[in-house]
Design brief:
The protein is mainly beta. It has eight helices and 44 strands. The N terminus and C terminus are likely disordered.
Length: 626
């Protein structure tokens, strides 16, 4: 094996120089691994095995993992990497990274089952209390965010610290502007007396950061610039001090820096990220409510009631006229599926309790369907309100009778969640999944008509969270392969593909089907003619977003296209390409912009905020799109 020489020499290296002075004898010795990115059989698989053997032969006291243990966060990868980690002969603890939370086929429930917690873990080692928590993003591409309930948990656990015990924060993301609620998180840590955070995410040498006066120590990724540069980070804690060293596999550790955890001059000399801009939405949007939990669903409506779900597993019915809650249902896990209203029922897909239907007015349960795996995908009710099309968990699409919950047909396609909302037209149902394929079924029977793939071997580029748009007998998509694709609805054959624009998962369609809208990763709205047999751009308009990858769909209402980004901005563009306005509602990613029966638009944001945009909002505003 190429690493055999490493295995022969690491023991002597540890014994001779792994922990030289000045660390005193009561030092807590930590091996900190992050971004190991193990997939069975990949290079990191072999490298991590070497790291485990090396750590087992070392004098370290504890091993901490800072997330991104896997690549896709699949159940199989999680089981596999847990098996490798379990070979450690030292106590170890782990938090998830964005590769465990963004593409999870189990809505992060498999991580909880295997690792024993859902991202929150508190453990003591020596005179230190470590508080680990998830930093997302959760079930979609977005910036990182610490859930509201996790901040409350931090406060509760910090209160349990023993006298004289120092507290260390642990999460995958840096606590800078890559985290949407960074100022709230750092303010919480300061209030709780937590001076230091450990994190990963940045694949570079161990580094020191200043997060609003909180010291941040970034651990290196397992794999370096080359296979021979693989390694991890060593942390030596004593008193208020911590020494940071880089440990290349088979080589002598190199000291990078030593700091005091609290108010170290070297830390304070580093610049923090600037404070995010202040929201300025009042000319075009109204804040309707602020939930106490994180929201990843869109809104649904029945008369004066609005429905949405939270990461605390709550399906909530809120009376918008009286500004009060009417009823709620609580489940065992987070909700990611937007509720649907039809036949006087509210239907919700859940991660722990299958598919549930409730009376829209009273909240009384009418029917339910148990599912073996979590539901995370968006559903679609047909124009008559009689049938619901929705993925019933991993590898399954189904047609459900709205009135009584009968399963009319079920199509099993193997693996991968269907996350984005399906499309229905001309008797055909089209949906994507995180298995690399776009599927077309007979809507009446569930029989497969065709399936299409972009040819990529990477499941990251699957059309799993796209909303197919159908017009004129054609299907239009913008998957994470950054291409705009037009397919023939009848056959699935490619009509055209365009890779000239950075398209990714956020699209819309004009009411007349003549224009396909794509929000690009450069923060533009692109309008495409749906009629020609070749790609034809109608216009492209900047939306003042800058770089963006949020999958919030483009919503068209009253001749205006509404789009939103990862940082709480909402823009309006007339369907002739004229920019109208762009406002900042908050600091987190938008989930969905949904049209209510009165023509108003309702936008939900991850930080628990829901905004209402009046119908035909005025076009003038001090922050016009340039």
């Amino acid at each position: 094996m190429k690493y055999s020489k490493i295995l022969l020499c690491f023991g002597a290296l540890w014994a001779s120089s792994a922990f030289p002075a000045p660390a005193p004898c009561d030092t807590l010795r930590v091996a900190f691994l992050t971004d190991i990115h193990v997939t069975p059989g990949n290079v990191q698989d072999s490298l991590f095995r070497v790291a485990v053997d090396e750590i087992n032969a070392s004098p370290c006291d504890i091993v901490i993992f800072g997330g991104d243990l896997t690549n896709l966060g699949s159940d199989a990868e999680l089981e596999y990497v847990h098996g490798l980690i379990s070979r450690l002969e030292k106590p170890w603890h782990a938090v998830p990274g964005n590769h465990e939370t963004t593409w999870s086929e189990s809505a992060c429930t498999t991580f909880a089952r295997i690792f024993g917690h859902d991202g929150r873990t508190a453990f003591r080692a020596g005179d230190y209390l470590f508080l680990g928590y998830a930093s997302g993003p959760f079930m979609k591409m977005a910036m990182g965010a610490v859930r509201t309930e996790d901040l409350a948990w931090l406060a509760a656990e910090a209160a349990k610290a023993r006298p004289g015990q120092r507290i260390v924060s642990l999460c995958h993301y840096p606590l800078n502007n890559d985290l949407t609620n960074r100022t709230e998180v750092t303010a919480t840590l300061r209030r709780l007396g937590i001076p230091l955070t450990l994190f990963g995410h940045y694949h570079r040498a161990p580094s020191l950061f200043n997060f609003d006066s909180i010291a941040g120590i970034q651990g290196r990724a397992l794999r370096g610039k080359s296979d021979s540069d693989a390694g991890y980070t060593l942390l030596d804690f004593w008193g208020d001090s911590v020494r940071v060293r880089e440990k290349t596999l088979g080589a002598e550790p190199r000291t990078r820096f030593t700091i005091r955890m609290q108010d170290d001059p070297r830390t304070l000399a580093l610049a923090s990220d600037p404070t995010p801009p202040v929201p300025d939405y009042k000319a075009h949007a109204q804040l309707v409510l602020q939930d106490s939990a994180t929201i990843y669903t869109g809104a649904a409506f029945y008369k004066d009631l609005v429905y949405y779900g939270t990461t605390q597993g709550v399906l909530r019915a809120y009376d918008t006229r009286r500004n009060r809650e009417v009823w709620r249902q609580r489940f065992g896990g987070a909700l990611y599926t937007t509720p649907l209203v039809a036949e006087g029922l509210v239907i919700a897909g859940t991660t722990t309790d299958g598919l549930r239907a409730y009376d829209a007015r009273t909240g009384l349960e009418r029917w339910h369907i148990d599912t073996p795996t979590p539901i995370v995908g968006q559903g679609l009710v047909d124009d008559r309100g009689a049938a619901l099309y929705i993925g019933l968990g991993n590898g399954t699409m189904a047609k459900i009778a709205v009135r009584d919950g009968r399963v009319l047909w079920r199509y099993d396609y193997g693996r991968g969640q269907s996350q984005g909302q399906p499309a229905l037209a001309d008797g055909k149902l089209v949906f994507g999944a995180w298995n690399g394929h776009l599927h077309c079924l007979d809507a009446a029977t569930g029989k497969l008509g065709w399936k299409w793939t972009n040819g990529s071997k990477s499941l990251f580029l699957s059309p799993g969270n796209i909303v197919p748009r159908i017009a004129g007998g054609r299907v239009f998509i913008d998957a994470p392969d950054r291409a705009v694709t037009c397919l023939d609805l009848a056959s699935g054959s490619v009509v055209w593909r365009c890779t000239d624009y950075k398209a990714r998962e956020a699209s819309g369609m004009s009411a007349d089907g003549k224009r396909f809208y794509v929000k690009t990763m450069d923060g533009e709205l692109l309008a495409i003619d749906t009629a020609p047999d070749a790609f034809r751009r109608l216009w492209i308009t900047p939306a003042s977003f800058g770089y963006d990858y949020t999958a919030c769909p483009v919503t068209v209402s009253g001749g205006i296209a509404y789009l939103a980004d990862r940082s709480g901005n909402v823009a309006a563009v007339r369907e002739d390409g004229t920019p109208l306005w762009c406002v900042k509602c908050c600091n987190s990613a938008a989930n969905f912009i949904t049209e209510a029966p009165d023509g108003s638009l309702w936008a939900t944001f991850a930080e628990g905020k829901i905004f209402r945009i009046p119908p035909h909002a005025p076009a003038e505003h001090k922050k016009k799109i340039p």
